[in-house]
């Protein structure tokens, strides 16, 4: 049924497939995400109304379980992302989180200012102490 490869991309859900040997038209490659055949690629012959598996064997054992688990995890992550995007668009919690973030930043700035003042005092005290010690050494030497 199939003659030559016109190129395909395994990462996309649909792409160019093989040329049909009966009519010469390009087929479409798609991925099956059913429980029986997760992530299994197949060629679609739309004109003739049938399909053919691109890979010889369907997944089984732990690879099949892993693919099904990954599919479920992807679905959950997509739902979470959609919910977060809806929440971001609606702006329902933005006021509260902005106020909390503003308070945290204000506290951080106040802490930094206090630390800077303490360091300035320490440097001033150390210079005064240094000058006093040098003065004492000079006085003892005379």
Explain how this protein is built.
- Keywords: Membrane, Transmembrane, Transmembrane helix.
- Residues 59-105 form the DUF7900 domain.
- The protein has 142 residues and is an alpha+beta fold.
- The protein has a domain at 1-58.
- It is built from two helices and five strands, in the order βββββαα.
- The chain has helices spanning 62-90, 94-141, and strands at 2-5, 14-20, 26-33, 38-45, 50-53.
- A five-stranded antiparallel beta sheet has the order 1-2-3-4-5.
- The longest helix is centred in the C-terminal third of the chain and has 48 residues, at 94-141.
- It is elongated.
- Residues 1-14 have low confidence and may be disordered.
Labels describing this entry:
142 residues; alpha+beta; 5-stranded antiparallel sheet; transmembrane; transmembrane helix
Write the layout of secondary structure elements.
Layout: E1 2-5, E2 14-20, E3 26-33, E4 38-45, E5 50-53, H1 62-90, H2 94-141
Antiparallel strand pairs: 1-2, 2-3, 3-4, 4-5
Task: Describe the structure concisely for a colleague.
By secondary structure, the protein is of the alpha+beta class. The protein is built from two helices and five strands.
């Amino acid at each position: 049924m199939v003659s030559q490869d016109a190129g395909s991309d395994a990462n996309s859900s649909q792409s160019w497939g093989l040329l049909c040997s009966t009519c010469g038209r390009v087929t479409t490659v798609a991925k099956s995400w059913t429980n029986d055949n997760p992530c299994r690629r197949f060629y679609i012959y739309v004109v003739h109304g049938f399909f053919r598996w691109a890979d010889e064997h369907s997944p089984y054992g732990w690879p099949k379980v892993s693919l099904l688990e990954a599919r479920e995890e992807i679905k959950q992550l997509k739902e979470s992302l959609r919910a977060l995007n809806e929440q971001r668009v609606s702006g329902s919690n933005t006021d509260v989180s902005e106020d909390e973030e503003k308070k945290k930043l204000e506290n951080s700035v106040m802490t930094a200012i206090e630390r800077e003042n303490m360091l300035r005092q320490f440097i001033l005290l150390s210079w005064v102490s240094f000058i006093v010690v040098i003065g004492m050494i000079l006085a003892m030497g005379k």
